[in-house]
């Protein structure tokens, strides 16, 4: 498949801080790459380089076939960027925000209005289009921000912590929008610390820690890397908990763990333990209300790789919201000279 994003050996230092220490990233056209990492891992710095907002100290990167250093204008025309926090103009209506960005991208007034109307419909904001955006809820502002990044019909979209601060229902709305983008052929690079977000959206995941890539695979592949499966048994009666522990201890690869007073969990090797465990529990007269064999969760993978639990925290905005070729070349270039941003 054709690569929409190719980055090799990217390094970036801010004073004594090594934000990136030679990372590689690749994303096929029309796919979603999830980039995971704890705060300060380097996710946002990588996005800023790929968006031409920062120059790498070393390494190369191409986006939509264009070099991010030698061909920044061509890259900007091809990308859309939405950061952690919606950056729409609060004193403008939703419609005015979108029309303004369209005009900055070089669309004439009629074309800018037509594109704005199209996106307001697509993002279910038609009824709110005439209201100032400061009256919008957090989820509505996020939808408007994402719509703004799509004014120029970008082929590549960067979503840097796009659901930070949203409640689960609003997060699901953003996820649905991302799925629609991918169906339309858009390539998405998603940075996140919500493990379920990466699991739900990304075909492949790259894990970054301390500026280095420490793992890359599909979600299922990463789960298998941690090793083994987990057998979980929930007993019907707490009095049978000790007996269930003894049964699972015979099939597990380490001592069982009791969770919540009625669930016994133990790592196992292979599916063959299932019939033996079912038979042993039955012979001991232990009634079971839940019986499952699963791969490790993505949160367990993340913890195994980085030593930190996945969380909903943020690592600093990549920028507010930049649409394809957004705002003006000079504003992007001035932003790239500010090196005090979070990494």
UniProtKB/TrEMBL annotation:
Write out the biased-composition intervals (Low complexity). Answer: 316-343
What domain of life does the UniProt record list for this protein's source?
Bacteria
Places the protein is found: Cell membrane
Report residue spans for region: Disordered.
308-343
Q: Name the Gene Ontology molecular function terms of this record.
A: ATP binding; ATP hydrolysis activity
Keywords, A to Z, come to: Antibiotic resistance, ATP-binding, Cell membrane, Membrane, Nucleotide-binding, Translocase, Transport
One Pfam annotation, family name?
DrrA1-3_C
Q: What's the protein's topology in the membrane?
A: Peripheral membrane protein
Keyword Translocase found: yes
Indicate yes or no for the key word ATP-binding.
yes
Checking SMART domains in the record gives: AAA (SM00382)
Instruction: Tell me which residues make up the ABC transporter domain.
Output: 5-235
Q: Which GO biological process annotations does it have?
A: daunorubicin transport; doxorubicin transport; response to antibiotic
> One Gene Ontology cellular component annotation?
plasma membrane
Please state which protein family the record places this protein in: Belongs to the ABC transporter superfamily. Drug exporter-1 (DrugE1) (TC 3.A.1.105) family.
The name this protein carries in UniProt is ATP-binding cassette domain-containing protein
């Amino acid at each position: 498949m054709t690569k929409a994003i190719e980055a090799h050996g990217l390094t970036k230092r801010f004073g004594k801080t090594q934000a990136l220490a030679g990372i590689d990233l690749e994303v096929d056209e029309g796919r979603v790459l999830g980039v995971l990492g704890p705060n300060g891992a380097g996710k946002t710095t990588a996005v800023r380089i790929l968006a031409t907002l920062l120059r790498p100290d070393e390494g190369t990167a191409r986006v939509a076939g264009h070099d991010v250093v030698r061909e920044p204008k061509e890259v900007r025309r091809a990308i859309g960027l939405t950061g952690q926090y919606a950056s729409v103009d609060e004193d403008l209506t939703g419609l005015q925000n979108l029309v303004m960005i369209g005009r900055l991208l070089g669309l004439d007034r009629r074309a800018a209005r037509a594109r704005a109307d199209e996106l307001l419909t697509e993002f279910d904001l038609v009824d709110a289009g005439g209201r100032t955006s400061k009256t919008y809820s957090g989820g509505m502002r996020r939808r408007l921000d994402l719509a703004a990044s799509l004014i120029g019909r970008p082929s590549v979209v960067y979503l840097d912590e796009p659901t930070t601060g949203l409640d689960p229902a609003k997060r699901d709305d953003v996820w649905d929008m991302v799925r629609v983008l991918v169906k339309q052929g858009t390539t998405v690079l998603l940075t996140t610390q919500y493990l379920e977000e990466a699991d739900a959206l990304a075909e492949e995941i790259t894990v970054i820690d301390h500026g280095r890539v420490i793992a890359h695979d599909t979600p299922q592949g990463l789960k298998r890397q941690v090793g083994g499966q987990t057998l979980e048994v929930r007993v019907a009666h707490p009095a049978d908990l000790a007996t269930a522990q003894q049964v699972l201890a015979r099939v597990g690869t380490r001592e069982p763990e009791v969770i919540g007073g009625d669930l016994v969990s133990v790592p196992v090797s292979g599916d063959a333990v299932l019939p033996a465990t079912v038979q042993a529990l039955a012979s001991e007269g232990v009634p079971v209300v839940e019986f499952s064999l699963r791969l490790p969760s993505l949160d367990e993978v993340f913890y195994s790789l980085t030593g930190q639990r996945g969380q909903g925290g943020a690592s600093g905005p990549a920028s507010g919201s930049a649409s394809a070729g957004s705002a003006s070349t000079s504003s992007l270039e001035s932003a790239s000279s500010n090196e005090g941003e979070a990494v």
